[in-house]
Request: fold
Amino acid sequence: MEAIFKMISEQPEYYAWVFGIVNFLWVFFLYINKKRHDKELVQLKQSLDLDLERRKKVFEMKSNQYENYFKNIDEIHNRHRNDYYEIVLPIINEFNASYLRANVMGDQVAAAAATSKFSEDIGKLTRDGFDEVQVMRSQTNSLRLTASDSVASTLDELQELYDKLFEHSEKMIRDIANIALYGDQELARSNQDKLNDLGEITKKKSQILREKMRSELSTI
Reply:
């Protein structure tokens, strides 16, 4: 220690200069390091902001898609909730009245016209149902592009159930003629029971899908 002190005492100007250089370099290092640290903090903040903005946009996009999907399903259910009494039953009653009146009068032309009108009305029901299923299938395909594997799988399962509902509805429509002409109430009950079963399964699957979508949105 005394040797170091003696060296500094013999050449104070030189060591003052050395210490000055060292101090300058140390201050310069701290300055550069602080600048780099500040830059990294800015970059990190920008990265976090961009990630937050991206997640916000993804959340808004998915939540809007999911909301529109179930809004469409609810609208379809509401539209057809009273279809039997408001649409199907009047078609059957009109056909029965027209066809019976034509038979009583022995008017084959009127009977044929009643049958033709009945077929047209039933055909329109089928076409309207097909259009709605196509809209749902299109929505399902769009959702699958950004949905998680779990949500996409449940979407497919729900779409299959709606396809089955549509197919069974078509059968029920085809059977209306026999029910109207021959009063086959057993066929009507069988069709209605199967429709109720499919409807209950579809409702439960829809609830599962809602929960999976809600869970997916909470993790974004």
Observations:
- The chain is about 95% helix and 0% strand.
- The radius of gyration is 38 Å.
